[in-house]
Amino acid sequence: MVRYLRAEVRIVGILVVLYLVGFGLLRVPVWPIWGVLAGVVHPIPFAGVIFGMLLPMLAMWLGDGDLWRILGVAGVFVVVQTLEGFVLTPQILGKSVGLGAMTVFLCGIIGGALFGPVGLLLAVPIAAIAAVAWRFAMKRNSPG
User: Fold this and answer.
1) Most distant CA atoms of the chain, gap in Å
2) Where is pLDDT greater, at 140 or 32?
């Protein structure tokens, strides 16, 4: 569990940096606040969409941002979330809990599809526990 939490903290840290860079380049009003919030709320399902895209887009719109910069906020969100979903989480989380990247990716998809946000949050920890139990059972039953 400690490894899982440590991996999540690393992922959140990377996301904060990515959002800060993206929002800073676009000059989103109060971009440091949006960048930190977008990264920190990442583990909470659907909160990332609110703090990583909708509220920064609203801030840009209210701050007289042109259409391209407003759409740029959506672009930053899509790029960061794509990196998170296909690279960061499978690699960092998978390595930390002893699961392959594809296993982590599939667990997230299946857990989310079957049980929604709760399944998305719990899929990888449950898979890691199952993998440890499986390895223990195989080791215990092996001859020698």
Assistant:
1) 72
2) 32
